[in-house]
Design a protein that fits this description.
CATH class: Alpha Beta
Number of helices: 10
CATH architecture: Alpha-Beta Complex
Number of strands: 11
Distance between the termini: 5 Å
Oligomer: single chain
Radius of gyration: 18 Å
Structural class: alpha/beta
Order of helices and strands: EEEHEHEHEHEHEEEHHHEHH
Number of domains: 1
CATH topology: Spore Coat Polysaccharide Biosynthesis Protein SpsA, Chain A
Strand content: 15-25%
Length: 263
């Protein structure tokens, strides 16, 4: 698969990882194919060819596991409420050390099965002054009705997000229920690319009504007038939110890894 050339040295990829997950404590260190989950995410970023990658954590166990593998890791505050906040602190540390980046990518620490080609798609969609994310067409009812699978609607003219919801949107009035045969739905892939200056602005915003209603921080950004650029991907992605997710998907990435064609 061919991708246009991008300057990967302008991009800082950050993997926020905390130990105290509510639904799955310690999941960042759960072993997948013999390696901690957070390290699998790091490897996916390396496979995508990114030059600047680090894990940002608040836990010494995660810090030590990443450091032992010779990788970049930063200790950040334990008070952060979101991965975005943690990424912003990590960026600030790099800037204070005299580094400079145009863009920051937030790679979720619980996405060990993310396809490196998705990371490249996001990189190629990065735009100055914007936030960038991925969506994928939903092809099964299970995802459509699962509130943990966030749905997105976006403009095909501007390629910008209109809204995100845990509910199946748009509402299909003629049916009174979601119907994949009559309506196209998209799920949100939780990987973000930020203009570095925009990221520093976002963490100063207060929680918004829509965000609090749906528990989706990207709604805070939309409510405050920030534009989110959307790239459509054809590659599937599986997050690990619970032990059940891990059991069902533990071998998914590695079954397809040999077929990757990043160039």
């Amino acid at each position: 698969m061919k991708h246009k050339e991008i300057n990967k040295h302008q991009i800082l990829a950050i993997i926020p990882a905390r130990y105290g997950s509510t639904r799955f404590p310690g999941k960042a260190l759960i072993e997948i194919n013999g390696e901690p989950m957070v390290w699998q995410v790091y490897l996916r970023a390396m496979e995508a060819g990114l030059k600047n990658i680090c894990v940002a954590t608040d836990d010494s166990r995660i810090f030590d596991a990443v450091k032992a593998r010779g990788a970049n890791v930063l200790m950040t505050k334990s008070t952060h409420l979101s991965g975005t906040d943690r990424c912003a602190e990590a960026l600030g540390i790099y800037l204070a050390q005299g580094n400079n980046f145009d863009f920051v990518i937030n790679l979720q620490g619980d996405e060990p099965f993310i396809d490196p080609r998705q990371i490249l798609e996001l990189c190629n969609g990065l735009k100055k002054g914007k936030i960038t994310t991925l969506v994928k067409q939903i092809d099964n009812t299970g995802q459509l009705t699962n509130p943990n699978c966030v749905k997105a609607v976006w403009s095909k003219i501007t390629s910008e997000a209109l809204y995100f919801s845990r509910y199946p949107i748009p509402y299909l009035r003629s049916e009174g229920r979601p119907d994949l045969e009559r309506q196209v739905y998209y799920k949100h892939i939780g990987i973000y690319g930020f203009d570095a200056k925009i990221l520093q602005e976002l963490v100063k915003l207060q929680p918004s009504p829509l965000e609090l209603s749906e528990s989706l921080e990207q709604l805070r950004w939309l409510e405050n007038g920030y534009r989110i650029s959307v790239c459509e991907t054809g590659y599937e992605s599986f997050g690990i939110d619970s032990p059940e997710d891990l059991k069902a998907l533990n071998n998914t990435l590695f079954a397809h890894k040999k077929n990757l064609d990043l160039l």
